[in-house]
Amino acid sequence: MGALKPWHIAVLVVVLILLFGAKRLPDAARSLGRSLRIIKAETKSLADDDRDLAEKADAQAGYQPLPPQQQAPYAQQAPYQAPPQQQPVVDPVQRSRDN
Length: 99
Prior knowledge:
Strand content: under 5%
Radius of gyration: 37 Å
Helix content: 55-70%
Mean pLDDT: 78
Order of helices and strands: HHH
Structural class: mainly alpha
Number of strands: 0
Distance between the termini: 100 Å
């Protein structure tokens, strides 16, 4: 019952021709072919990217981290101190209005 028989395909073609018209079917098929080509190219590029990443990961697996270096004497500075508090700046025009 699940098999597609030749008369099923014929009925499907007749329905498509009635729905879309004979002029639009070639354009639709062309668009479908382009879309499938794009999908195929994108999936291939994704597979290539995955393979490239795996090769890079294998190549980097042999690297060893650098030994820790001693800090330079100038790097041992006092911790940051905030600047001293200054008096707020007052606008001279505002000051003349207040007096």
